[in-house]
Design a protein that fits this description.
The protein is mainly beta. The chain has a domain at 8-155. The chain has no helices and 26 strands. It has strands spanning 9-13, 29-31, 40-41, 44-46, 52-56, 60-67, 72-77, 89-93, 96-100, 105-108, 116-122, 127-134, 139-143, 145-152, 157-174, 177-193, 196-212, 215-219, 225-232, 235-239, 245-253, 256-258, 263-265, 268-271, 276-284, 287-291. It starts with 8 loop residues before the first strand and ends with a strand.
């Protein structure tokens, strides 16, 4: 479970390869996006109310914190002096803050930048939308937001969600996903190669899939509908002992075990009223249903 107390949101991107890693190969790259002429380069203070954030930061640490100020403050550090083209670029469109790694331009020199970004929001900021994309690196976030989308091409995703969210989406091609969820209507997680760890107070609908890796779900309240998949790896589900659940538990190569007072009804395992539906399937691995103890 992620423990972040004063931080509203932390996003970390650590690049691992190519020019995104800060290594120099003597080449340049193009980074093109719409409305590039609207963006402001470098550090700044924003007085506008921010209700949505869209971050595309290719490489480096990005930290979004809670601030005592009534303004949103953007600061960036680097291993070397940056040109305006190399600096972070931001644009406030209405109540949406757009954040880009650098200028929209061709033949940019992005070698050896080792940039880090800090965005400080006024205390109590409640977002409608948070979108974070990192090409190569990790995402770590603690936030209050109605909708949350976190995407990595290569890296880990760690989220501590506060309050109530309509939808949470977390995806990585190569890396682990760890979610701490207070309350969410729908959670969708996918990992191509890596582990999944979800600790939740309340999720109404849960969809989770990993191609290769173990997954652990600790659910204080049984979701109304949940689909848990693993191509290769164990699935462990921790539930209240008085759970109302009808579960389809299956493994092609492995064992099914449980601590709940299940009764078998055809292919389903039923506990209590059986009101909530769950399916957990792994092609190669075990399926374990355990009891959450006080």
């Amino acid at each position: 479970m992620i423990k972040l107390k004063s931080i509203l949101l932390v996003v970390t991107g650590v690049a691992t390869m190519g020019i995104l890693s800060g290594c120099g190969f003597g080449w340049t790259t193009s980074y093109i996006y719409e409305n590039g002429e609207q963006y402001v380069a470098g550090d700044r203070e924003i007085s506008d109310k921010i209700e949505a954030i869209d971050i595309d930061y290719l490489s480096g640490d990005v930290t979004l914190t809670e601030s005592a100020s009534d303004k949103t403050t953007i600061t960036e550090t680097s291993a070397k002096e940056l040109t305006n083209l190399q600096k972070v670029h931001t644009w406030v469109e209405g109540t949406t803050l757009h954040v880009k790694y650098c200028a929209s331009a061709k033949r940019l020199d992005l070698n050896f930048l080792d940039k880090n970004l800090n965005i400080a929001l006024p205390a109590g900021t409640n977002l409608n939308d948070l979108n974070v994309s990192v090409s190569s690196g990790d995402i770590e976030a603690s936030c209050i937001s109605k909708n949350i989308n976190l995407n990595c091409s290569s890296g880990d995703v760690n989220l501590h969600q506060i309050g109530t969210s309509d939808a949470i989406n977390a995806h990585t091609s190569s890396g682990d996903v760890a979610l701490s969820v207070e309350n969410a209507n729908k959670v969708d997680v996918s990992v191509s190669s890596g582990k999944i760890d979800i600790n939740a107070g309340s999720i109404r609908q849960l969809n989770s899939k990993t191609s290769s890796g173990n997954s652990v779900y600790t659910l204080a309240r049984v979701p109304q509908d949940s689909k848990l998949r693993a191509s290769s790896g164990d699935i462990t589900i921790n539930l209240p002992k008085d759970a109302d659940l009808s579960a389809d538990l299956d493994t092609s190569s492995g064992d099914v075990s449980y601590e709940l007072a299940f009764a078998k009804n055809g292919d389903n395992y039923v506990c209590g009223s059986g009101a909530n539906q769950m399916s957990a399937h792994t092609s190669s691995g075990d399926v374990n249903v355990k009891t959450i103890y006080d």
